[in-house]
Amino acid sequence: MLKLIFIRHFSTYGNQLKRYIGVTDERLWEEGIPNLEQVAYPEVEAVFVSPLTRCRQTAALVYPNLQPVVCEDFKECNFGEFENKNYLELSDHDKYQEWINSGGTMAFPGGEDVQEFKNRCILEFQKVINLSLKEGYQAVALVVHGGTIMSILEQYADTKQDYYYWHVENGNGYITEYEEMDGRLINICNIH
Q1: Can you tell me whether residue 20 is helix, strand or coil?
Q2: Which of 6, 86, 108, 168 is most exposed, with the fewest beta carbons within 10 Å of its own?
Q3: What percent of the chain has pLDDT over 90?
Q4: Looking at the predicted structure, is the pLDDT value of residue 162 above 90?
Q5: What are the domain boundaries of the chain?
Q6: Read out DSSP for 100-152?
Q7: CA atoms within 13 A on the CB side of 130
């Protein structure tokens, strides 16, 4: 059985300000990097990352001895007109209120359609699964974005939950196992 470790990248400056940071390629915020001796990230044989700097930097800190495999379609969602703004900055934006009223399901104005974002994450995940099984890996990590993790777990978790249920804070994530026969993620628990 393949063990999967999902890690949301460490914090950026924009994350600290609660901004929608999607395609903005921010570096890690130095003060947002945890004491890695206090966090138990499981050992893995391979690490797969989003191409954005914050994920590559996080992977290098957590798994310094592994060369990450960059997965283009693990990029965070393009938030369009909401990119690099927080809810306070968007409070008077009519399109933002429409998006909120849709339950976060409508396309981001000038950005990406939410379902298309989810679909590309799921397709990329399946490529990672196929490669990992082919290589005979026992444990792999995905150092990606919150939206990427939520998309994958909404689709594959053996316990069906809403997309937003799977939200994790920066540096946190999930440990799970891929059940090859059913194509599901089982035994999901939080990284401590």
Answers
A1: strand
A2: 86
A3: 91
A4: yes
A5: 6-135+146-183
A6: HHTTS-SPPTTS--HHHHHHHHHHHHHHHHHHHHHHT-SEEEEEE-HHHHHHH
A7: 6
β-partners of residue 184 are: 179
The alpha carbon torsion through 72, 73, 75, 79 (nearest 10 deg) reads: 130
Query: What is the tens place of the pLDDT at every residue in 33-56?
Result: 988 888 889 999 999 999 999 999
CATH number, span 6-135+146-183: 3.40.50.1240
DSSP 139-190: EEEEEE-HHHHHHHHHHHBSS---GGGG---TT-EEEEEEETTTTEEEEEEE
58 φ, ψ to 5°? -60, -45
Q: How far apart are CA 65 and CA 78, in angstroms?
A: 31
